[in-house]
Every structure is written in C-alpha cells, then in structure tokens.
Amino acid sequence: MHLIFRYVRPYLKRMSLGLVIKFTGTIMDLFLPYILAHIIDEIVPLQDLRLVLKWGVVMLVCSILAILGNVIANRMAAWVARETTRRLRHDLFRKISYLSNRQIDGFTVPSLISRMTTDTYNIHRMVGMMQRIGIRAPILVIGGVIVTITLEPVLALVLTCMLPIILAIVFFVSRRSIPLFDHLQKSVDTMVRVVRENASGVRVIKALSRSEGEKVRFERVNRQVMADENKANMVMAASKPAMNLTLNLGLVLVILVGAWRVNAGLCGPGAITAFLTYFTIILNAMMSITRVLTMWSKALASAERIESVMAAEDQLTPQPIPATHEQAHIVFENVNFSYNNKENNLEEINFTLNRGESLGIIGPTGAGKSTLAGLLMRFYDIRSGSIRVEGKDVRAYDLKELRAKFGVVFQNDILFKKSIGENIRIGRQLDMTRLEQAAKDAQAAFFIEETGGMEASLEARGVNLSGGQKQRLLIARALAGRPDILILDDSSSALDYQTDARLRQTIHKDYGDTTTLIIAQRVSSVKNCDKILVLEEGRMSGFGTHDQLMQSCDLYREISRLQMGEGVQA
Length: 570
Fold this sequence. Notes:
It is a single chain. By secondary structure, the protein is an alpha/beta fold. The protein has three domains: 2-191 and 236-310, ABC transporter transmembrane region fold (Up-down Bundle); 316-405 and 483-570, 3-Layer(aba) Sandwich (Rossmann fold), CATH 3.40.50.300; 412-482, Rossmann fold (3-Layer(aba) Sandwich), CATH 3.40.50.300. It has 19 helices and ten strands. It has helices at 2-8, 12-43, 49-97, 101-107, 109-151, 153-200, 202-207, 211-263, 269-310, 369-376, 399-403, 420-425, 432-441, 445-451, 467-480, 497-510, 523-526, 546-552, 554-564, and strands at residues 330-337, 346-353, 358-362, 384-389, 392-393, 406-409, 485-489, 515-519, 531-536, 539-544. A six-stranded mixed β-sheet has the order 6-7-8-3-9-10, with helices on both faces. It has a four-stranded antiparallel β-sheet with strand order 2-1-4-5, with helices on one face. Helix 16 links the parallel strand 7 (485-489) and strand 8 (515-519). Helix 2 (12-43) runs antiparallel to helix 3 (49-97), helix 2 runs parallel beside helix 5 and helix 5 packs antiparallel against helix 6 (153-200). The termini are far apart. 35% of the residues are buried.
C-alpha cells in the first residue's frame, strides 16, 4: 500500500479537486429522490402546476450537475491513474535494468515480465476505480443512510440493522482473497515463462515435431491459472449473493413496515417511494464496493510483488578496494565463483594479460568459459579472489565506467527491430563514418550494402539475416566503440574459415591496443592468440601458447587432434 501511495502522492491536489467534483455530482444524485418525495407529498396535493414545473426544473438541474460532475471527475481519475502507472512502470523498468544477474535469476525473467505488465495494470485499474467508484459508492451508502434517517427514521432503522452483516461479509472476503490473488499471480508467472519459451524456441519446437507436446504443457499451466483464478474469484463472488440476500431481505422488511406506516397515516407514499429508491441506490453502491474490494485485493497482491523488486538492494555498488600499481591490463588472481554459493563453478583461476594481448579461451561445453567473461564485466560478484582491470578491482569500479571499457558479443546475442545502423550504434554517440568503419572491420560491409545500407530495417532478433550475417553485425557493434577490452563469446561459429581468418587479422592489425578475449569451440579461432586458457569443469587445465599447450596439455592436444588432425603420430 505504501508503494501505491508513494506514486499517487504527486497527484493529490488533482485527486482532491476530482474528489470535490465527484462529491458534488454524487450529492446531486442523492437529492433527486428527496425532491421527488417532496413533490409527491407536498406539491402534488396543492394542485399547482407552476410549482410542479419549478421543482421539475430543480430536478433537471441536479441531474445535469450530477452527470457533468461524474464525467469530469472520471476523466481526471483516468488521467491520474495513467500518469501514476506510467511513472511506476518507468521506475520498475529502470530498477530491473540495474538488478544484478543473481537477482534476476532469483526473480526469474517471466516473473519480472508479469510484474511489469499484469501487476502494474492491476494497480492502474485500482487507482482509477478508487477515484471513481471507491469515492462515489461510500458517499452513496453513507449519504443514503443519512437522508433516509431524516426522511423516515423507523425505516432507516431496518436499513442500519443490515450494515453490520454487510461489513462482516466484506471483512471475511478481503481477508481470504488477498493471499489467493498473490498465488494466482505466481501461476501467471509460470504461464508467462511457458509462453516465452515457446515463442523463443518456436523453430526448434517445429523442427522436432514437439508442437503437440507443447500444447499439452501449455494446457496444463493454463488450467492451473484457471483453477487458481476460479478459486480466488469464487471467494470474491460469494460476497455478491450474500450482500444481495441481506439487502433484499432488508428491502422486503422496508416494504412491509412502510406499507403498515402508510396505512396508519404515519408517513406519505412519496416518502416510501423515495426510501425504496434510496434503498436501491444503496444496494447498487454496496455491489460496487464489492467490485472495488475485488480490485483492491488484486492490486495489493500486485503491489507487494512490485515492492519486492523495488526494495531489492543494489548488489553491484562500488566497493572500497585499494588499487594496485601493476602494469598488467587484466589480472585474475585466485578467482573462485559459485552460482548457488555452494559448489564452485570456477575454481582457482589465475592469469595475467597485458594491454593489446589476445587470450583464447577454449574447453568443453559447461567448462565456465562464458562465466569467466561475465565475471570480468561484473555480471556476478566472485566468491573469493580478485579480478583487476588496470590495477583496479572490478568491484571498485562504477558499473557504467567499467562496462564502457568493453565491446562484447555474447552467445545468442540480440538484434533489435531497428535499422542496421541503429543496431550497430545501440544508442551511443557514434557518427556514420565510425559505423561504416566498424562494419568494414567486421567483414559486414558487403552484405550491408546489398541489404540496403545502414538505413535498411531489420526484423526482431534479426530473423531476416543468416547466422553469419547476424554474427558480423554483432561484431561490428562491439568494434564500433573502439573498446579497451573486446570479448568475443563464440561469435565466429557461423563464419566460414576464410571470413573468420580475415576478421582476426583485422582485429590484430587495427585494434592493436585492444585486449581481446576470444571464447571459442574451434582451435583455429584461438590458435594464433598470444595466450590460450584451457578450462575443464571450471578449473584451469592449461595456459600458454598453442605450441606450449600442444606439449603440456592433454585436453588441448586432444581437441586439436580431433578438429585439425594435429598431434597425430605418423
């Protein structure tokens, strides 16, 4: 609730004005039955048409004011709800952008997507509904009770006897519904994850004829969402018939008591007519309150989920670690890392790179090659040891300063639905000359020209490009900023050997001051690097040049033999 109030607070003045307008319009609604009772009981017996018309005009004015007040107040409420949700989504998106990878793993991407969409929409609806129905309905209930007491105290007593029962129903429903809606949102998270996996892997699913199996899997999670939603809605739905029964029983009692009092001459028929109208107004208002209660329960559950993200502590703030005076550009010293803080995924990693040197990282799948690159950019914090760039521990850097030093191509990297030029620039202040030079260095200039130049549009994820074309565009993106450190994570797997060789030659010739880390599966991609690191099950199996490793590292020699036929005795 604190989260919602924090984002609504800047609009309290506008909300207060809307409340005044809404209050005025609602009071006009409450005047109408009272005026009608006055006309029936006081004006009609006088048989004065002029007075009837006069009071009819008063009713018309009240009706117009009621309509205008409600329309204006509802428009103001919609504006406040829209602006509140816009700011909330902006801040939530910004917070997610700065979460550490470990925090994102904890929340999960599907859950974060659900919080950005479904949960913020629930809050949007609640903020709007509270300003419209949440204000109008209580005014109608309280105002209706007050007017009925002044109009006919005995009948009002029947109505007030029903209110404690109604309040008990509201309390019970709200207490039960909030946990159920929280559980429902977790089920929605699971459904979003399944949909996301199917959308991302649609080609694999079709290629392996797994469409029917995925339909069954989606049907299972969809039914779970339906079951959880039904359970939550059944609790909420129980309030409506219970309140209907209570209020309608009260209405029956009002009619019986009213008929007796009219027959006894204790009140007029106009008062009974007005009282029945007020009772109907109160009944509808109580039904509206149950709708508000349903939305309130959903919004509170959503607010708690959003608050858990917004309250997450920043795990990657700069730490006061003293710098060293070493000359090396990159140093890994006794580095240990674990994803689950139990078993090490990388253990005792030690190596040094001078500026301008190239390091090839090779090893079996799952050996920790990409993890090592992620630690260098501080996507995760290490368990022990030290990673230093230019003598400064990466944990001591401001993240923006640290990551500005890198140009990176990740495995399964992303191309956006923008022009080729914008995909290479990626929001940086780079002129067209720099973009064209980067494309040329990445061996991408020829196909870019054939595609339509830098202004040519790409589809989402670059589906209108081949695998090799996508990789060359991604490499151009990494080279465009002339980084201090270049990381190529399996970025040449779709390139032919000739293009791969030209690319490595260009990087060696034109980016001589750039320290390069090449993560690859092919020995040919790392063979000419200044140093090669061989990883196996998170440990260093070998470190040195190609020739040194051919002599000293059995794993490297075996990989080279299988791929290139090297090391085979005649």
